[in-house]
TrEMBL record:
<dbReference type="InterPro" id="IPR006175">
    <property type="entry name" value="YjgF/YER057c/UK114"/>
</dbReference>
<dbReference type="GO" id="GO:0005829">
    <property type="term" value="C:cytosol"/>
</dbReference>
<dbReference type="InterPro" id="IPR038743">
    <property type="entry name" value="YjgH-like"/>
</dbReference>
<dbReference type="InterPro" id="IPR035959">
    <property type="entry name" value="RutC-like_sf"/>
</dbReference>
<protein>
    <recommendedName>
        <fullName>Enamine deaminase RidA</fullName>
    </recommendedName>
</protein>
<dbReference type="Pfam" id="PF01042">
    <property type="entry name" value="Ribonuc_L-PSP"/>
</dbReference>
<dbReference type="GO" id="GO:0019239">
    <property type="term" value="F:deaminase activity"/>
</dbReference>
Length: 136
């Protein structure tokens, strides 16, 4: 097995180590990003829904930037929403602030009953720039 090429955003490595997962892995020209939530620096949930979604995107964008990517490099998105029937529209209004112009990435939306105190999570796969380091 090859060594994982892990990408850590600035200032949050202890949080990921405490929870025993990698924020993102580079592999075969792609960046696989773990689900990002609207967590504060200490890992606690942001209570306001719109602010939580913005913080999830800020956390996602920090990981993408650490790998030399941006949201324009994202090819696949999975979102998890607690109670999507009531939260989808308010969440999607905020998502539009980050999504950019078409063409958009692929999307899978999943309604869930629990996200460890969060209401929204976003997980992506991005195409790494050709100049990025690629691991097997």
């Amino acid at each position: 097995m090859s060594t994982r090429d892990v990408v850590f955003p600035s200032g949050r490595q202890a949080l990921y180590e405490r929870n025993r997962y990698s924020p993102a892995i580079r592999s075969h020209g792609f960046l696989f990003v773990s689900g990002q939530v609207g967590s504060r620096p200490d890992g606690s949930p942001e209570p306001d829904l719109a602010a939580q979604v913005r913080l999830a995107f800020d956390n996602l964008n920090a990981i993408l930037a650490a790998a030399g990517c941006s949201f324009r490099d994202v090819v696949d998105v999975t979102v998890f929403i607690v109670d999507p029937e009531t939260r989808f529209e308010p969440i999607w209004q905020v998502v539009g602030e980050y999504w950019g112009e078409a063409p958009h990435p692929t999307l899978t939306g999943i309604g869930v009953t629990w996200l460890y105190g969060f209401q929204f999570e976003i997980k992506v796969i991005a195409k790494l720039p050709d100049t990025a380091t690629v691991a097997a």
